[in-house]
Here is the input.
Amino acid sequence: MKNAVQNYISLTGRNSSLVIDCNNDAPQIMYWREKLSAQSTAQMMSLLRLRQEAPASPIKEIRRSLTPTTGQGYTGHPGISLHGETDQWSVATDISKVECVAPNHYEITNTDRNRNIVIIHTIKMDAETDVVAVSTELVNHSDSAISLDWCAAATIPIPSYFKHIIGFEGHWAGEFQEHHLEQHFGAYVRENRRGRTSHDSFPGLIMRTKATDQLQGEAYGFHLGWSGNHKIIAEKMGDGRAYVQIGELLLPGEMTLQQGESYRSPTLYASYSSGGLSALSQQYHQYVRSHLIRQSVKNKPRPVHYNTWEGIYFDHDVDTLKDLASRAAAIGAERFVLDDGWFIGRDDDSAGLGDWYVDKKYYPSGLTPLIDHVKAQGLEFGLWFEPEMVNPNSNLYRAHPDWVLGTPPNQQLGFRNQLVLDLSRQEVFDYLYARIDSILTEYDIAYIKWDMNRDINHPGGANGKPAIHNQTHAFYQLVAKLKSAHPKVEIESCASGGGRADYGVLAHTDRIWTSDSNDALERLKIQKGFSYFFPAELMGSHVGPRDCHITHRNINMAMRASVVLFGHMGMEMDLRELTDEETVELKAMVALYKQHRHLVHSGDLFRLELPEYMHGLGIVAQDQSQALFSYSLITASSASLPDQFHFAGLDKHAIYQLDIIWPIKSGDRWPKASVFNFKTHLPDVDGKQFSGEVLMQLGMQLPLLTPQSSLIFHLSKVG
Here is the structure.
């Protein structure tokens, strides 16, 4: 290794150590597990890792480096794939420089001097959360152009017994669904080509051992912070070695690098935990809180939303909206979000997108009268946009039909009556910025719901080349420019629900609309999957209509309201339809949310191991002084009586006061359940106070509930 500062790189977190061997031609992770003591040296590990020559195999085993290449003889999936006029495809680099940028932050430069190609790895570990951020940059110093087909953020070796995969699939109104499978020889591959993060292939992966569950065992987590196309690979090679590789999926011809040009992969966020899947999620949550959520947002309690969409859809009327704002304020809402339908020509979803001017047909005096009324009720005002889209039936499209992405002469695929604007064209970018900036300047708007309601099926740019990479970066830049001009405005990432949820978009936005489904039972599954990588305060969760508009399932208010407490609460329904009893319950949940939102939005999440017909989770304060736990019965119990409910994450040496805080009047509803009537015949013993170890190890007998019922417990340390 030439000009190397050191032969080994060590990165250390609170609970893990990561060691990279830089002694040979390519950097390779040789250890990443539990934190090592000072007596354990990299040299020791190097000796213990020596492998003999395998039968019918190369004399020298090819290393699983951060970017293994075909030119080095690697027979797994290469970390980089490219081609040019001659032999660039066979790139093979040597380490030329290792630089410590800051504690726990390194850059490793690798150079192919024959082909004048440079690969730079940037890797840093957050010492508090044990989350590793890694990316790879390719620089072309040759005289000819290079076509880049693939550049993984990193190739991460995994011990072979981490062979249980948790992936994430889904669909519209059913995002973040876990799937579990056991890895065998060969590759597990997921590809997303939808032009946005997608509903069906979230860019996340978890590798765990057989013994790992929510509360114990080892696991690695991986998430690509990117809002465009992506590819995930988890392979077990024929020699028994395994690895994970994730990066941006580039379409044919999408990335060409001329002399001096470079490409940087999106960042891969990876983490290791020996404390179970919930502990792994806690590490990601604290990382997001420390590095991605803006300080101004962290300092402000997450306000209760009222969103108009499922209340009125496109039926806009100022007096009706004022009435809804008044009703929302009376229930306890703090932010009123006017959804789709406010701009010219937008009588339905077939017209108007792109024409971002207030429709004087519905708002003859503009939005000011409505905003003034909303603010008079003590609410902030938010507004819906879908900037990247245009309807063919719009003034913008009629004036500029060439502004859309497409692959002419191929016919555009119909999708919600809209096409995708090419944000990489400067004139399109400037138009959208000017229109949104004008609205934000004219009106007192505190919040934008930024939507994206279709895939990019024809991703050709003005030059005929695929444009997803440039489109995604242009989207980031547009949001960033608007944020710079209007720093107090918060922005929600929505894409027909949770179709654009990732750390890339979170660098620019402040909330994620988790799913278009407000069905409380579906939301339990959706929000569980979401929680693996995202903390509760980013998870938009609304109390929907009595009869869900998507599943048509009728769900009682107590159940609907219980699900939103563990996210960023909102309401999305026609409030005029509420019964008096529903209004009382909804107001009670709003009050409960406000009382406990600091805990929910700062504490540690624990997902509980329960049968599929049940759901349970808890949020425990980081100092273990208090906690909230939820138990939901989705369908009928498989036994005549349910089992014990085991709490988690408590201080086992402490005494906790246990109170049931939801639903209201619980004791009246289930009068024979002992859980609502704690009694003791012992003197000086409080029947509602229990040790943390008893609550966790013995647990509490649950009452026999009816399906679609939920209980919420509050625990506070008293000794």
